[in-house]
Amino acid sequence: MNVEEFEFFSNYEDKVTGKLKLFGRNWRCSNAKAVILIVHGFGEHSGRYGHVAEIFNKHNIAFVAYDTRGSGRSGGERGYVPCLNAVMDDLEAAIGKVRESKYYPDVPLIIYGHGTGCITQLSHIQRRKSKSLLYQAMILSTPAITIAQRPSAIQYLLVKTFGYLAPHFRLPLGGNKDKREYSTDKDVVEKYRTDPLVHDRWPAGTVSMFLQLGYEFESAIIDFPVPTLIQQGSVDTTTPAERIRAWANKAKGPKTYKEWEGFDHELHNEPEKESLFKHILWWLNTTLNLNIESSQHPEIVPLKVLTDTISKE
């Protein structure tokens, strides 16, 4: 694979520290028919998506990822997000980086979010609706708009209080690395736990923001402005499938919901992930008319049994 590392600055400018430097990876391919920009989940980094990029590159789809602020090799305090505008500005800066590239000036752009990365996506289409025209499709993978163990009213009040008074204070939450398993693949879990670039720091301000946005989006009827594929694992112990299913069902716009039986939170890291990628490729091919020839890629077959599509409104 042809991967390039790059750095760029966020569009968000802090009054004290200025614009934060972010790190990214660009997996190029020849004759790209589309480009995917990944917004990874909390605590991880873009380097965990190399195998995903390889799949898409084989089908002439370029793949770009950036480490979100406070994660991986990007700057910033680990896990700390000063405000919602910061992560939305980061996303727009990353989109700008993709579009200014000589490799992808005119091809369709797909924003692919995982976990809390989906919250950034949803915030962007809800609060900056005119900017959604910057991309042509979205993929939401196990969107972290809800969590299995919701805090009580008192706990939520405490989180909001700490988030306001001491936003950098690290809350005593269960660590991601040692106590959670996001995949049924034990090798993936072990690599995650020993990855030095993965962190489990949850500053109060960040937790408060994500919880508040999660409550807002779960109760909202989202009207998707671009074709959107929502994917969920049936045994996800982080974001319960029944809640994501209900949320997707009430949403409006051109959306498709797919639930993967026996898959946990990191769908792209499950033992049967090949089926997941086949489905994404089929959806992209039919949604964006990418003309990925079935004769060249016989595994991409638009079988109805692969998908559970919610009617478009």
UniProtKB/TrEMBL annotation:
Q: Which SUPFAM superfamilies match?
A: alpha/beta-Hydrolases (SSF53474)
Matching InterPro entries: AB_hydrolase_fold, Hydrolase_4, MAG_DAG_Lipase
- Top-level lineage group: Eukaryota
Protein name as catalogued: Serine aminopeptidase S33 domain-containing protein
Pfam families the record matches: Hydrolase_4
Residue ranges of every copy of the Serine aminopeptidase S33 domain listed in the record: 31-272
